[in-house]
Design a protein that fits this description.
By secondary structure, the protein is α/β, with parallel strands linked by helices. The chain contains 9 helices and 20 strands. Helix 2 crosses helix 3.
Length: about 375
């Protein structure tokens, strides 16, 4: 067993349930250092603090428990059971388990009807995959379990990029789910993430409150058409939906047909290229939901410049009292950054930027106050008023 002893006064955040120990917070390590192995964590005065996965990366320990419990099949079963219970108000498709926020760092589980997709984002979890499968079989009784651990990560994380069937029948190429009365086709094998962005559920619902009847709308990074279809259902006359990924656009078109929606124009382009060339009518509402653009704290200035450019490209094409929804799925690009970027984009212009609201990730992606990093998605909704 690896023993990790912390520097003085570094135990406080662990006692307060922050689940990460950084390399520079460690006083000494006893035992053979093996990537992904369970370790016991102690304060500098040898107070037991808990157990976690050891890593030789910058995050040296990812905590599993602050109790002296055995990390066995029953441990995983209890965690997954409690996570699913917390989501009992949701329908049959949702994020079932969300990593640290549900108590197991690196474990992502998405549920699409009776099909389960898992993603392993922690080297240590590979040793416990069978426990996870058995727990899901017992609690969910799915038709199949499929792994999608084909995400981008640092080389030093040493995580295997496993993709494939784990249990039950072969998972379909396409699964049809429903959210807010809109049907979606999900491609669990090839779609981004595990095929669908459950985290924008609340924002997709909120945008309906902002759309005026017969308005012109833009979905700047549409993926499979979520914002575009919700704006259509809310009464928009026409929506232009942009995405650089042709495969995602093909699914978006199928989704529109599935919902008898025929007023969305799909464009295979980057948002930046399209807006530079756009010469059409001005928009009443523009939803700008780019992929994660900054990864680290020191990239904040870069992030401000990136989001400022996104807004600058939008503003010539927005009507007076038009609405911009500016979203960030990066922890380090917080609401303050989005506000600063928007303010700078409109600096020197006689326009009021009126706050309408802010939406965050849906509640199946829990935000734990003691874990600041667990709040990563935010959408700032603003009305731009000419003076």
């Amino acid at each position: 067993m690896i023993i990790v002893r912390l520097n003085k006064n570094k135990e406080k955040k662990i006692i307060n349930l922050y689940p990460r120990v950084f390399k520079d917070e460690i006083f000494e390590i006893q035992g053979e250092k093996i990537e992904g192995e369970i370790c016991n964590v102690f304060s500098n005065e040898y107070q037991f603090l808990g157990k976690g996965f050891y890593s030789e990366g910058n995050i040296a320990v990812k905590m599993l428990s602050t109790k002296d419990v055995e990390i066995n099949e029953e441990f995983f079963k209890e965690k997954i059971f409690l996570a699913n219970k917390k989501r009992s108000n949701l329908k049959n498709s949702y994020r079932l388990f969300h990593a640290e926020a549900d108590g197991i760092p690196g474990l992502i589980i998405d549920k699409y009807l009776d099909y389960i997709i898992i993603q392993i984002r922690n080297k240590g979890l590979e040793n416990y995959k069978n426990y996870i499968i058995e727990a899901l079989k017992d609690i969910i009784n799915p038709k199949s379990i499929y792994e999608r651990s084909d995400f981008e990560s640092k080389v030093e994380d040493k995580i295997e990029r496993n993709v494939g069937h784990l249990y039950g029948e072969e998972i379909p190429e396409e699964i049809e789910i429903e959210e807010h009365g809109i049907k979606y086709i999900v491609n669990p094998k090839k779609g981004q993430k595990t095929g669908f962005f459950f985290d924008q559920r609340d924002s997709r619902k909120f945008v309906r409150e902002l759309v005026k009847k017969d308005s012109l709308a833009l979905d700047g990074h549409t993926f499979t058409g979520g914002f575009a279809m919700n704006m259509s259902k809310a009464g928009a006359n026409k929506i232009i939906a942009i995405d650089k990924d042709e495969d995602s656009l093909q699914i978006a078109k199928k989704n529109a047909c599935l919902n008898n929606i025929d007023n969305i124009e799909y464009v295979n382009s980057t948002y930046e290229n399209y807006m530079k060339e756009y010469e059409g009518e001005k928009f009443d509402i523009m939803v700008l939901d780019p992929p994660s653009l900054i990864k680290k704290k020191h990239e904040r200035k870069k992030g401000v410049d990136i989001f400022k450019n996104i807004v600058e490209l939008a503003k010539p094409h927005l009507k007076d009292e038009g609405i911009i929804g500016l979203c960030s799925c990066a922890y380090h690009a917080d609401t303050d950054l989005l506000i600063e970027a928007t303010r700078k984009a409109y600096f020197g212009e006689q326009k009021l930027i009126q706050f309408i609201g802010v939406t965050f990730q849906s509640n199946d992606h829990p935000w734990i106050i003691q874990i600041p990093e667990s709040l990563y998605l935010k959408c700032l909704w603003m009305k731009i008023i000419n003076l």
